[in-house]
Design brief:
This protein has 341 residues and is of the alpha/beta class. The protein contains 10 helices and 10 strands. The structure holds zinc ion. Zinc ion binds next to loops.
Length: 341
Amino acid sequence: MTRKAGRLAVLFGGVLALWLAVALVAWSGTRDARRAPLAVPADTVVLLTLDGVRMRELLLGADPGLSGAGGDPRGTLMPFLMGALVPEGVFLGDPARGSRFGLGHPVGVSMPNYQALFAGRVTACLRNECPPVRGGTLITSVVDRFGAGALGVFTSYGALCPALRVPPEAQPRCSAGLRRGYAGAPRQTAPEWGARDAAIIDAALQRLRAAPPRFLYIALEETDPAAHVGNYPAYLRLLREYDGYIRALATELARQAATGRRVTLLITADHARGSGDGWRQHRWNVPGTDDLWLAAAGHGIAPRGRLAEGPARSSRDVRATVEYLLGLGVRPALPEILNGA
Ligand SMILES: [Zn+2]
């Protein structure tokens, strides 16, 4: 090798080393940024689940093929959620846009999916009658860091609190024995549908106004039994009522945000349900059960509207996302819905 060639080789080697160093620093910087906690955590995260609500009525309105659809106009039955909240936040799971948000637990039954939502993993639960979830969950993360007083859980699905191991002091409205066993369930008449959910949302709003917890979980659940007994008009009416509840929650959160509080709202379902005549049911072998959705808005959430494409996600990603928003975790499981993650 000539001296000139040697100098060139040294120069080339130096340039290569410099490039590698820059690339490594950039790569590790990116990785560190993705692994860092949210700079300013949310003061309150509200998670709302709507039991067995499929996206058909959210995106397209009532299914004219189902008896009882009536003369409902085309278009969403939840105009506030889809027309006001989502444009300021995000919606995951619109199949027309190639966005996928699936079941947390493949069995497609309620309790296994509530456990997967809170545990962030598939649990051993396979039916609605399950022992309390084992290991860490979103509930234990919040309670361990902030104390049970920082947690509020409101639902009329009484089995949910023991199955999720909600501490008694955090469950002022966790009524027992109000659902399950549809075959023997009381046949509610139309005017009665919605009374339990209305009481739950009232209690949750009172708590949110009086002493907002760090993490507030609200589970509305009457849509599922209404569907199981095939009462489509009641199911549609409940969706309209839920839209009003979401408006009330968002209005209160906006009022708090105006005072400087950092607040986030996430909305999803435990499972979806079948289509056509299969709409009454949900299960691993009922097509459509896996077509879940998630809407979110507020502190930490990017205003990206209905997301297109992107990686397939599931409700198992919600736990890490809420923990990230609360400053409890460093893994933003759904970076596409987050600001700067
Ligand atoms: Zn369910």
